[in-house]
Amino acid sequence: MDSAVLSLLAAFLLSIIGLFAFIWSLRKGLLVENPAAASVIFARGEVGRVDDPALHAEDHRSLQRAAAGADGPVADPSDLQARVLADRSSALPVFMFVAFACFWLLLGSVAGLTSSIKLHAPDWLVEQGWLTFGRIRTVHLTAVLYGWITNAALGLILWLLPRLLRTELRGAAWTLLGGALVNTGIAAGIGAISAGWSDGMEYLEIPWQIGLFMAAGLAMIILPVLFTLVNRRAEHLYVSVWYCVAGLLWVTLLFVVAKMPGVHTGVQQATTNWWYGHNVLGLWFTPVSVGAIYYFLPKIIGRPVRSYNLSILGFWTLAFFYGQVGGHHLIGGPVPGWLVTLSIVQSLMMVIPVIAFTINMGGTLQGRMHLARWSPTLRFMMFGGLVYLASSLQGSMEALRSVNAVTHFTHYTVGHAHLGAYGFVSMVLFGAIYFMLPRVLNWEWPYPRLITLHFWLAAAGISIYFVALTVGGWLQGLAMLDPARAFIESVTVTLPYLKWRSVGGSLMVASHLVFVGHFLAMALRFGPVRTGAALFAPARDLELSYGK
């Protein structure tokens, strides 16, 4: 029995286990509407009070008046103090992961823009091997997917869990060591890819010998997370905990199985490659980002999630249906027909968790969408949530054989991938960092207008990028399917759209320069002086105003 079939059977077994867990949760009443669980993100007496640390005090009061027309309720000081201690316990690991994420974001952005320009100017920067398209694009993928998104997601998890579990992070030193190993693996992997040493599978190019560092690092991060979970003081597990912990466990399992040396070969290697390639998005990036929206969006507007039942339903259906989705990338390939059909069915079934999430967030935001005018964090979260709906529906339709016949092997697929990884995941992570860092550093963002500039540059950039590649990719696919047209026409028809892709990419790079520059100004205490930075100042109690 080959490795691909074994992997699929293992995934099927996990789905069966998940089904029994789902049935158990029904018997225990976990899917019954639970207002107490929905309100666990708030301190006692805090419901109705808006919260966005990215705002100055006067802007925060304006947000509160726009939401409820008053100053808002007063939260229990003991609950706020417990939250301050939780933030304090994770401050150093969170700052480390965010700092690494910012570094890799800049490196990956420059590499991505370079590879984009090469598509319409192929003779540019060809003197060095590491600057050729095949290597620089792979550097971009590795730096962005593992360096930026994974580091930012790990920082988000380590910040959220102590808050939601109402306990301090246990084993923070292990998370620091794990982060060092993960980023050592990323740096060594990018160096190896630049030198021409690669495992040759998309998203899995890092050589397995270097991948050992990343697997060991993830394991060291999992242990403190689970230990903190076991020692929680919270009575209810909020849905964001489910998403974040499951995502961390899933990505570690996925990475270890996919990187096993000498196990996956030939057609089985391609099958395993896309099993991993799609699941790293659906079972790592997506759970963390959806979990973040479920926390930050209700927290900002001061209103519990509309239906806790729907949030749990979304989690379980994501776990049930996503495991086999990647096979639709192999339509037309030498793989079993049942595998491809199963993947198409699973892709269409993914509409269920997406619609559940959308209905839930729409109901939670009802009457308060206008608050995005004041809250930059809410702006990022709403944009990410909307794009999650759009990219997921597009992905389900793209899995259909009739649509895939046109879009396969075209830039259309690249546009879709960026819509999900950037328009959804990255925008949510940006918003989360804007919310977290004032609590991590006990220091306000010095130039709030830069947050607005970052948002509009990024939103405009990904919009231009996606539209250009969607239109250009569809025309490219039609040209390739037309036997009366020479193949070169399918290349030349894309050139105007590839130039627009570079325009959109340039706007995104500009937004990243603004974001990272603002982060450095905050970390190094440039700009207006407000409060001492907890991470660098002598140990002292944090102000309750930063623990809300």
TrEMBL record:
Gene3D superfamilies reported for this sequence: Cytochrome c oxidase-like, subunit I domain
GO-annotated biological processes: aerobic respiration; electron transport coupled proton transport; respiratory electron transport chain
One GO cellular component, as annotated: membrane
Sample GO molecular function, one term: cytochrome-c oxidase activity
Pfam families attached to this UniProt entry: COX1 (PF00115)
InterPro entries: Cyt_c_oxase-like_su1_dom (IPR023616), Cyt_c_oxase-like_su1_sf (IPR036927), Cyt_C_Oxase_1 (IPR000883)
Cytochrome oxidase subunit I profile domain mapped to chain residues: 77-548
Assigned keywords, A-Z: Electron transport, Membrane, Respiratory chain, Transmembrane, Transmembrane helix, Transport
Entry's transmembrane regions: 6-26, 91-119, 139-161, 173-198, 210-230, 237-256, 276-296, 308-325, 337-359, 380-397, 417-441, 453-475, 503-524
PANTHER family reported in the protein's UniProt record: CYTOCHROME C OXIDASE SUBUNIT 1, CYTOCHROME C OXIDASE SUBUNIT 1 HOMOLOG, BACTEROID
UniProt name for this protein: Cbb3-type cytochrome c oxidase subunit I
Provenance organism: Ramlibacter cellulosilyticus
Highest classification ranks of the organism: Bacteria, Pseudomonadati, Pseudomonadota, Betaproteobacteria, Burkholderiales
